[in-house]
TrEMBL record:
InterPro entries: Cro/C1-type_HTH, DUF2690
Segments traversing the membrane: 127-148
Identification of the protein by name: Helix-turn-helix domain-containing protein
Region named Disordered: 80-121
């Protein structure tokens, strides 16, 4: 991000610097202290829009920053973005009501025999035409939904017979599906990686992480700057750790946090493990990337 691009970009850049000074905690970890979702915190530092004051101060507090200083900075940017009041705008905000002397009451002429009456049949025909148009609109909308589906295609998951709960449900236990961050696997290394491309742009590397201490492996996405700095607010990460020998899988399908993402770990003493993943941006999806199967 270029902090010279404008005050909003400088604001977001300094939020990221503040997080780095705090030890670069993940947005998931930051969310535990800020009491905002990880996705909201990531959007606050994306530089696409000014976050709310409450979100900004929660981010700053969680990173140990100066709340008063950031509050002043937020108000300064908010005042810059506010459109200036013009005389025309002020005038339109307070409309004047003309007096009764200036605006005489409108007189409604009494009905006479010469006043044309609406034919009964015409009103019915108009009602039927309106009903028919509504029916055609409904049918057309239904056809459009079928022919032009909204959103990216769904992930082509592995054919697993045992899909485990999300990693955050399994705490710190060294079991299949556990969160590797919480389980504590300090010796983890990237056993194999494969780039994820969407069109002509590479957006990150799908990695199969392995820990000999935990006797486990898991899928992780390591995003590139092309993804972290992407202006879209509709980016999803889909990851799967899969063990073909017993058809066991741990899956995540979540909004991009401008950070690394990972699925739950699977033990490698029960069979080889592979990583699978996909990135979607707006209505575009990358191919499903899959690493080789590794057993240690």
């Amino acid at each position: 991000m270029d902090p010279e691009a404008g005050p909003l970009q400088a604001f977001a850049f300094d939020l990221r610097r503040l997080r780095e000074k705090a030890g670069s905690p993940s947005y998931r970890k930051l969310a535990e202290h800020a009491h905002y979702s990880a996705a909201a915190l990531a959007r606050a530092a994306a530089g696409n829009a000014l976050p709310t004051l409450d979100l900004t101060l929660a981010y700053v507090t969680a990173c140990g920053g100066d709340v008063e200083e950031w509050q002043q900075r937020w108000h300064a940017i908010e005042n810059q973005q506010r459109p200036p009041a013009t005389a025309e705008h002020i005038s339109s905000s307070f409309p004047t009501t003309p007096s009764l002397k200036e605006t005489p009451p409108e007189e409604t002429p009494p009905p006479t025999e010469e006043t044309p009456q609406r034919p009964v049949g015409r009103g019915r025909r108009s009602w039927l035409m309106t009903l028919g148009a509504a029916a055609l609109l409904t049918v057309g909308t239904t056809v459009a939904l079928v022919v032009w589906p909204d959103g990216p295609p769904s992930m082509n998951w592995a054919n697993a017979s045992n899909v485990l709960p999300p990693p955050d449900k399994l705490g710190q236990a060294l079991v299949d599906g556990a969160d590797p961050k919480r389980a504590g696997c300090p010796d983890a290394v990237t056993a194999v990686g494969q780039e994820v491309w969407l069109g002509s742009v590479a957006y990150g590397t799908l990695e199969l992480r392995y820990s000999q201490k935990c006797v486990s492996a898991w899928a992780r996405l390591n995003p590139y700057g092309s993804l972290i700095n992407n202006s879209s607010q509709d980016i999803r990460i889909r990851l799967e750790t899969f063990r073909p020998d017993d058809s066991t899988a741990s899956r995540v399908d979540e909004a991009f946090l401008r950070d690394q993402h990972w699925a739950g770990m699977l033990r490698t003493d029960k069979g080889c493990v592979k990583a699978r993943g996909q990135i979607t941006i707006d209505s575009n999806a990358s191919e499903v990337v899959e690493t080789v199967c590794v057993k240690r």
